[in-house]
Amino acid sequence: ALILCLACAAANTNAAEQPGALYAGIGLGLSQLNPQENGSGWHTIDKTDSGFGVYLGYPINERWFAELTYADLGAAQVAPRNNSLSAAAEISYQVPSLTAGYYFWQPSEEIYAFVRGGIAGIKNKSSGAIDIYEQNTSVQITLGLGLEWRFAPQLFARLELTSYDVDAQIAMLSVGCWFDD
User: Which of 146, 172, 156, 152 is nearest to 51 (CA)?
Assistant: First the structure.
């Protein structure tokens, strides 16, 4: 993140105000994961984990943007309902997504509120000797809401809450920068 910020600060144009400039970012967050049990004999014992995300975006105009994101939401801890069957295990979540966003409110010159929506491909993997998770579908609708603070001509920070499905959400703080055309 530091290298990304330094590279952006070295640029000499104000790309933040120019639609058409690519931008990228990286962030850390806390995730809430609740895999559906569906009569599997397993139950979730720890639904929270830390996660990270990286994204590449393109501002279509002053209000609209498109983003390609990869988020690793961490893993939910699960255990068998019958303790004699097996040890506890994890179900991990990796999520690539493609979204469109809209800046709907600007309470100050540097702060922008936005919403986003799109499609996500959730990839789950369970730890342990037995595959304990049966995924209903790998394609989901993703929705997000956030604030963006443009604290320097090329740099910004975001605080965002994103939901990838009823069982996977993340609150993330990220930093990013615009690149010259």
Answer: 172
